[in-house]
Amino acid sequence: MRRLFPVTHETAAEASAEASGADVTEREWELGELAEAYAYPEVRWPWLRANMVSTLDGAAQHDGRSQPISNATDMRIFGVLRGLADVVVVGAETVRQEGYRPARAREAFAALREAAGQGPAPAIAVVTASLDLDFSLPLFTSPLVPTLVLTGAAAAPDRVAEAERAGARVVIAGDGVGIDPARAVRALGDLGHTRLLTEGGPRLLGQLIAAGVLDEMCLTLAPMLAAGDAQRIAGGPSVPVPQQFGLVSLLEEAGFLYSRYGRSGRQSE
């Protein structure tokens, strides 16, 4: 792994060595280094970041799953981002397709989470209008931290009751059957969750972008071509004007690019 941006004395020295033809050996970053590289900004309001992976031709999935276009380092960063988050926000379809399980406590992050006033693992918050979920799965019956279900006030009462019987905490974040993204972010903040992470899928990410509540994008660009009709990382309605984000950091390993972009001006509010 090597850092391409921001440029430091170390990265400048590596670039100079490469230019001279020297053999520059990449090294695996320590967990603490990755945690520092992806640390949340020091803000009091809920900060929502997304973590997604895409091929060179824009595919967010292959055969309906993201795993085939990922790699070991991408999964390592995936784990670091979860280790830093208070809550992981995910769409119901992604829960079904990817076989989501409860987040687990990781010894490597225990001291860091305790110092930040966090619990042993992030909660999973499932966004769903229909509550068409299998509430007998471990995600609902045996999480380390109770799973949250984000839905609207018009959700079917019997499904809400079933979710609560399974041990989930139902959070109303909309007046209809679906959620209002801005209201969902506020609701999570009211529960004490200020470090928010979403792992999609594309439909949910598109809703968050359209609502203007996404603060940061962590995007892995895989050196692969998938073709076909796979979804992009975000779908749904377009925004009136493309939102401007600025590059925060860029890492590289084996042709994979691990980028981090922040919404322009947000950190200075």
Task: Describe the structure using short key phrases.
269 residues, Dihydrofolate Reductase, subunit A, alpha/beta, 10-stranded mixed beta sheet, single chain, 29% helix, 22% strand, 9 helices, 10 strands
Describe the model.
The chain is an alpha/beta fold and about 270 residues long. It has one domain (about 40-265): Dihydrofolate Reductase, subunit A (3-Layer(aba) Sandwich). It is about 30% helix and about 20% strand. The chain has a ten-stranded mixed beta sheet, with helices on both faces. The longest helix has 13 residues, at about 70-85. It is globular, with a radius of gyration of 19 Å. The mean pLDDT is about 90.
Measured by DSSP, the beta-strand proportion falls in 15-25%
- Please tell me the total number of domains: 1
Low-confidence parts, pLDDT < 50 over ≥5 residues? none
CATH architecture: 3-Layer(aba) Sandwich
Q: Tell me the name of the CATH class.
A: Alpha Beta
Q: Average pLDDT, to the nearest integer?
A: 92
Q: In which range does the helix fraction lie?
A: 25-40%
The succession of helices and strands, N to C, reads: EHHEHEHHEHEHEHEHEEE
CATH homologous superfamily annotation: Dihydrofolate Reductase, subunit A
Largest sheet: 10 strands, mixed
Question: What is the approximate shape?
Answer: globular
